[in-house]
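ok trying this again, last paste got cut off
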Amino acid sequence: MTSDDLLAIADLDDSDRATAMQALFQELANLAPEAQYETLRQLIEVMAEKASDAQYLRLCATNLMLAAQMPDDQLRPFLGLRMKASASLPEAYAKRDQAMVQQAINEAAPGIREKIVRNFAL
């Protein structure tokens, strides 16, 4: 997926963005752990480098909603892998990612926020 593709997904309406990201989550699930890590790292880097705050927040909100639909035993490793990928980025990108994810968590519906926080404290 190119950076333009990811930014285009961030600009889709809520339903289409959720469908596109669900397909990406499915692709990730079929990859080996190292490939999952590299893919997440690249996607986060693109967003941190090129996305507007609004695009970033929309994508984070959609991803949190989708992640909250996972069973806890799948969600915990996914969140850990995502945070590991984020932490491996240059400091400015990692800080931006953490701030955007935290803002999206704070703005999420209570059920989504509680499940995410319960499974991984940021």
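PB: full thing came through this time. Residues 3-119 form one domain.
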